[in-house]
Amino acid sequence: MRLYMTAGSPYARIVRVEAIELGLADRIEEVPATLRDPNSAVLAVSPLGRVPCLVTDDGIAISDTRSIAEYLDRLHVGPRFVPNGGPDLWQERAFEALAMGFLDGCIFYGRELGRPADTRSPAIFDGEVARAKRCLDHFETIAASIPQTATMGPVTLASALAYYDRHDTGDDWRTGRPALAAWHAAMMARPSFAATAPAPKA
Ligand SMILES: N[C@@H](CCC(=O)N[C@@H](CS)C(=O)NCC(=O)O)C(=O)O
Predict the structure, then answer these.
(1) Which mutation among 11, 54, 64, 96 tests ligand 1's pocket best, with the greatest number of atoms within 8 A of CB?
(2) In a domain, 43, yes or no
(3) Residue 114 shares a structural domain with residue 21
(4) 51 shares its domain with 107
(5) Residue 34: inside a domain
(6) Cα angle vertex 179, ends 178, 184, to 5°?
(7) Residue list, ligand 1 pocket, CB within 6 Å
(8) Is the domain of 69 the same as that of 131?
(9) 112/53: higher pLDDT
(10) Nearest C-alpha neighbor of 17 from the set 78, 61, 77, 82
C-alpha cells in the first residue's frame, strides 16, 4: 500500500499513528506529497489532491481519513481502532465527530493564519478561533473521561491539539485547561506519536 502524506498533516498523522499502533506500518510505503501544487505526486492518484490518500494493493485510492482508518482497521485482528459496536458506540462516535470538527476548524484558521494579515477575513478567522476555544473548554470539562487509547476519537483529538500547538493564536491553550494538557501529554508520550512528530518549526 502507498500512503500519500505530508509530515505536517494532522489528518495523515491519525492514520500514520494507527498504522504503527496496529503493526501495519511495514506494509505501507509513505509517499511525501505537496499541497495545492499542480505537480503534486498525489494528483497522479486522486483529483482531490488532498492528503492522506491511501492506494490499496488493489489500486483503490481512498482519500478520506476516516475511510482510510476503517480500511486499515480491517487488515488486522485485535482491538478495533475505529469502534464499530458495543454499548459505548454512539458516545465514541459523537466524541470522534467533535474531535474531527475541532480539527477541521483548526485547519481553517491555520490556513487564514498562513495568509498575509491584510488579506485575512476577520469574520472567518474570529469565528474559527471562537469555535476552537469553545471546543477546548468542552474537552477540558470531559478530559478525565477521555480514554488514553489508540482509537479513532482520542487519536484525532491528540493530533488536532498537536496541530493547534504549531498554529496557535498566540495564547497557550493549556492555560486554564490542566486536565486536557495532562491528557494530551500522555497521548504524545506514545511511541506512535513520537514517530510521527513533524520537524520543529524553524
Ligand atoms: N476531510 C479530509 C481532509 C484532508 C485535508 O484537508 N488535508 C489537508 C492537509 S492537512 C490537505 O490535503 N489540504 C490540501 C488541499 O485542501 O488542497 C480528510 O478527512 O481526510
Answers:
(1) 11
(2) yes
(3) no
(4) no
(5) yes
(6) 95
(7) 9-11, 35-36, 49-52, 64-65, 107
(8) no
(9) 53
(10) 82
**Range from 46-50, 52-56, 119-123 carrying the lowest mean pLDDT:** 119-123
Nearest CA to ligand 1 atom 15: 50
Residues 154 and 105 in one domain: yes
Q: Please name the residue whose Cα sits nearest to atom 19 of ligand 1.
A: 65
Determine what percent of the chain is predicted with pLDDT higher than 90.
85
* Nearest atom (ligand 1) to Cα of 68: 20
- 177: amino acid identity, one letter: R
Label residue 12 by pLDDT band (50, 70, 90): very high
CA 172–ligand 1 middle distance (angstroms):
25
Residue 51 alpha carbon to ligand 1 centre in Å = 5
Question: Within this chain, do residues 68 and 93 fall inside the same structural domain, yes or no?
Answer: no
Q: Please, which residues have CB within 8 angstroms of residue 41's CB and are 6 or more apart in sequence? A: 4, 31, 32, 33, 34
Mean of pLDDT values over 62-88:
96
Domain total for the chain?
Answer: 2
**Nearest by Cα to 9 from 52, 48, 49, 44:** 52
Tell whether 43 and 108 lie within a shared domain: no
Structural domain that includes position 146: 89-195
In this structure, are 119 and 66 located in the same domain?
no
Output the pLDDT for position 121.
84
